[in-house]
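anyone seen this seq b4? input:
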Amino acid sequence: MKKWIAIGLALLIVVWWIAAAPRPEIRCCVAESVAFDPSTAAAIAAVEHSADFATSLEHFRSDLPGYDDVVFLEGGTTVLVTATDGKIWSVDLATHAAQPLVDAPLMAFGIHEAPGDPNHVYFCSSHAYGEPFPGEAVGLYRLALDTRKIEPIVLEVPATLIDPDHPIVYADDDPKAPELRRDGSGAEHHRPLVVCDNLEVSEDGRRIYFSEPFSYKDTSLDDAVDEAIALPPNGRLWRHDLDSGTTRLIAEGFHFVNGVLYDLHPGQPREESVLVTQTSLFRLARFYLRGPKAGSYEVVLDGLTGMDDGMDRDASGRIWLAMFTERSPVLTWAHANAWIKPLLLRLPPQLLLRQTQRTGVIVVSPDGSKPLYAAMYKGPRLASVASAVPAEDGIYLANESLGEFDREQSGIVRLKWPQQLQ
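predicted toks r here
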């Protein structure tokens, strides 16, 4: 009898092991053990001011739900936010009154002004982790503020195959870079954009960079959690040229490319490199597009103490990194001991999502290499900071949640300027 019970239990374990496996795009490419650079955490700890953070938060409650990103309209009296209800909201900063402006295709994520064109903004739109939206497409979109008309800019990209062992960055003058032109020519094969996560618009307003952290179909929140555990190199960065109508691959084979920001380029006609956040690898990286290092990349900061999401510059050129959630000891240990990951990938992702952790910001030097200020927070005003957008009267913190959003957290949250950065 005991023998048959043991056999039955073994069969159940085998069936569970097979049924609970992550999708093949993740299962195939689990990263080897990762040890984070401890010097980054030490540099962040040296400028940490978490004790002052909570007292510097201002919360202006309204009907505004959780949101992913913020953009200031010309004049600075109104902001648009990409909310988790699938709408883009308008917020009057004088009264803090909020109201829906447009219903975006799918769910809007990153949003950015159009330099030199105050009547338009650009935004990314993607599936809200498995929510069905028949007839709507993932893409990069443009919103006209006067008519509230939304038009697609990029819905399809060249179809490429990632080599997981050889990440690549394409220099601007590299003729081998996959491209898809306005008339559909260029790329031998093309496919629908699967995820449009975050975006950046060049200083002259003619080029739009946008990230695709992974590109497998029918993605869900479970897959995003599995990505954070397995660290597969599924991420890409794209660029769309508004003048030529060409969409070009900038880089691929990097884990979870998310936020993007062009590097300052005084005296140069255009950007020579861009910074990207690799969110669940806790890393800030740079892709070189022009100049002597064109076609290469470098790790700027490794071992950040939180998941770096969106990023924005302040008037002094400093970069504000939004820390969606802090790097937990459990995840740090798992990355250092990759042998445990096949088991972790089969456990319910809710076990990880239930770990309430701190959220906050890290401010780094204009080149991204030196932490200048850091603060983490756990409390009733913030769920997770998805972006931190500086303004004269403070830093506006996009407040998002992967789980249930507490309605008490709804509305605008603003951080007063830290004395250390004034």
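The first helix runs from residue 2 to 19. DSSP finds eight helices and 28 strands in the chain. kinda curious what u guys think
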